[in-house]
Amino acid sequence: MVRIIPVLFIDDNVELCTLFQMFLEEKGDFSVHICNSGDEALLYLQDNKVMAVISDYDMPEMNGIDLLNQIRTIHPRLPFIMLTGNDSKETAIAALNAGADFYQNKGDDFEVQVLSLSHKIQVLASRHEAEESARKKGEILAAISYAAERLLQGKGWQEDMQEVLGHLGKATGASSVFITAYDRSLDFDSDSDAVIWNVEFNDNGAVSSDIYTAFHSWWKNQSRITLFASHQEIMTWVHTLPIEERQIFNAAHIGTFLLIPVYVDMHMWGVLGITDTQDGRIFSPEEVSALRMAAGVIGSARHRMYIEEFFRNPVEESLVGVFLMKDSRFSYVNPRFCEIFGYVRDEADCAFLPEYLVHPTCRDRFLSNIESVLHGIRSSCHFEFAGIRTDGTKIYLEMYLAPIMCGGFSCLVGNIMDVTERYQAKLALLESEERFRELFTNINDLILLHLPADEGGLILETNLAVSSSLLYDRSEMLSKNLPSLCPIGVEQDVCVEHIHVAADKGQSISRTVFLRNDGFAIPVEVSTRRVVMHGRQVLLTVARDITERVRADAKIRAGEELLKRNMLVSLREKETLLREIHHRVKNNMQIIISLLKLQEYQTEDTHVHEIIRDCRGRIYSMAVIHEKLYQTDELISIRLDEYFRDIADRVISEFESGNVHITLSITGSSDIFVDINTGIPLGLIMNELITNCMKYAFCPGQTGEIRIDLCKDGEFLTISVIDTGKGFPHDGIRMSDSSLGFELIKGLSLQLQGTVEWKNSGGACCMVTIPFAKTDNNEVSCQKVVEY
Predict the structure, then answer these.
(1) Are strands 52-56 and 5-10 parallel, antiparallel or unpaired?
(2) For the segment 223-258, what is each residue's pLDDT rounded down to a tens digit?
């Protein structure tokens, strides 16, 4: 890289400033910035770095001596050359006493002045660079010393590196310093390995987000990777980069950057980066060497942290308590150890002593085991003991203990597990086994543990009830198989099948007979279930003596047979009584009909004859249902079509004469059955409808037909009576025109929650629709009968 020395030239003579600038920059060794007053120069120095200042002595507002004094307060070691137009020795002495490095008179030949000034600037710049390099190296080495001390404490990577980078940044005068792992993106917000320190460029804060963008992909170039891999640093002036990259770095206010590889255990881990806003800044070899030392310290610290994490994390995160014991005290315990005993970790120094942790009943055995391992009597030790938590709770623990040398001292290392739940489960298991054994031994049922039939069915274990009930010794039972307890023949075959079913399906229940040792048969109910014992499938059979139950069942069956016979006798008696009732009701109604018939003969009034005839028909319709009921087997329901035919045939025969012939047909469903509650209202309705047909439908000497249609539609029954007569005088019947017969039809339909409709359809037609319910015997009855 070509070194360009930035120079600040101050003179109130603009033409002279321009001339010096042109000649100094001609060879490309200098970059000259011009200021025409001392105030302007001081403002420029606040935001810009220069390696030399050249100032005129005589200026109107601030002379060179005053400017030099103010610059020395800000930059004590900045090279300064004083120019003057007079050849006064007093002026030269005053300038040198004020701190000027050189004094030069403007009166000499101009080219000689430029050459002399160039030489002086280069000498001063080299001296300044050497001084600055030595100073910065010293500051960097101090920062490295601080870094080594801070990183050895290991308080936290982010916090430690923030402090270390801050010291390096201040020592190098950089605008930002960062460290990051090489195989990760530069994300200082989310990456725990990436840390950045930077100065603020304005009042709004740092510009680290722009630094992320600038370096995110730039350093992954293969040529740069090769340089890093060969332990080479990369120092770059941004103005030498391609324009696209230059724009990115300029946006981040980066003029120069230095990247130094960081190695961890001989492998490249990451990069230490130093950036500066000055484009063209040169990092001296001394600075680079010192920064390499800093990268080495950081790499060593990172390696140490990895090693500590490698060994510490498994112990710290272990699910068992881990401890190190020295001089009969716990010198280290992990978090799980503290959690087991309920202590805060900071209490370890004063609380973690055996006498605080071990239950008094186990203390002597605990100390004896420790002493035996510590003195080499035993190479290791594994034992269980009872401990005490900080709240006084008793817990049960399992400990592994082994000797170890630590720092030249004999120590003990071990781990400890809280086995309270396991211990309590073990106690519960023992108690459960004891309860089960007591239950198994003393239960009254016969319990036998045996092999499946295909393995011989040998009995493995029995309870006391087996010996007491079957009169066998336990040793005799253990030489038998289950089927041998049953009589030879069917019962033994049933037992074998029972065992096979239990072995295949997991369980089986059946009844069989066991023979006692004296040959007496005992009926038993056998329940067998497949179980696993010691990893082997066996069968557990529970047999219950059901002798008393069999006897009780026999008594119950005998009682049920007697009760059944008595009920049948009672039922026949009631059927006979009910038939007799229906028969007598029918006979009584027949007597009433006969009386009305006699009364009819006593009068010659035609109107009275009609009234008596209508009454007889209505009574007959009720008598018929009683007659039909006592002729049935169930005495509950009758067929509706047969019932209607009897009523219609009687009415037609009552009205027919020699010159009138009416035929009757019943169509529709023939499997409709009705009970007495529905049948009587329907019979009365049918009587009225047929009577009206015979009275009004046909002219004298006319033949005709009356058709009764029964139709089931869902939950409704529709009864239609249609004749082939002359029909109604008008369509429908008005309520005011209704006679007693029509009133009866409407009232009885309403009683059955039904509807009635009259119309002409080739003759008169009346349709009665009622709801019905179908019973298990295919019987249809009105769902609800309204009482009047």
Answers:
(1) parallel
(2) 777 777 777 888 888 888 888 888 888 888 888 988
Half-sphere exposure (CA, 13 Å, Cβ side) for 262?
Answer: 25
Which phi and psi (to 5°) does residue 216 adopt?
Answer: -55, -45
Pull the structure tokens for residue 382.
């594994």
Contact 96/122 with Cβ under 8 angstroms?
A: no
* Sequence letter at residue 731: D
For the chain, give the number of residues: 788
Residues contacting residue 191 through CB under 8 Å, at least 6 positions apart: 180, 181, 184, 185
C-alpha 227/C-alpha 233 separation (Å) is 7
- Angle (deg, nearest 10), helices 157-172 and 110-153: 160
Distance CA(328)–CA(374), nearest Å, equals 10
Residue 757: name the closest of 769, 744, 771 by CA: 769
Non-local CB neighbours of 410 within 8 Å, separated by 6+ positions: 374, 403
Query: DSSP letter at 172?
Result: H
Count of CB atoms situated within 10 Å of the CB of 701? 10
pLDDT tens digits for range 736-747: 455 778 888 888
Q: Is the pLDDT of residue 541 over 50?
A: yes
Find all residues with CB under 8 Å of 418, minimum gap 6, and list them. Answer: 321, 340, 395, 396, 397
DSSP assignment of 486-511 equals SPTTHHHHHHHHHHHHHHHHSEEEEE
CA separation for the pair 722, 106 (Å, rounded): 149
C-alpha to C-alpha distance for 229 and 619, rounded to whole angstroms: 125
3-class secondary structure, 183: coil
549-552 contacts: CB < 8 A, separation 24 or more?
Answer: 550/523
8 A C-beta contact, residue 117 and residue 81: yes
Helix (H) or strand (E) holding 532: strand 521-533
Alpha carbons within 13 angstroms on the beta-carbon side of residue 461 total: 9
For residues 615 and 574, what is the distance between their CA atoms, to the nearest angstrom? 32
Q: Which residues contact 98 (CB under 8 A, 6 or more apart)?
A: 65, 68, 69, 72
Radius of gyration (C-alpha) of the chain in whole angstroms: 62
Q: Which residues make Cβ contacts (< 8 Å) with residue 603, sequence separation at least 6?
A: 609
Write the CB contacts of 741 (distance below 8 Å, at least 6 apart in sequence). 614, 688, 691, 692
d(CA 765, CA 727): 8
For residue 147, the tally of other CB atoms under 10 A from its CB is 23
Helical (H) or strand (E) element with 10: strand 5-10
- pLDDT band for 399, please (50, 70, 90 cuts): very high
What are the phi and psi torsion angles at 720 (to 5°)? -115, 135
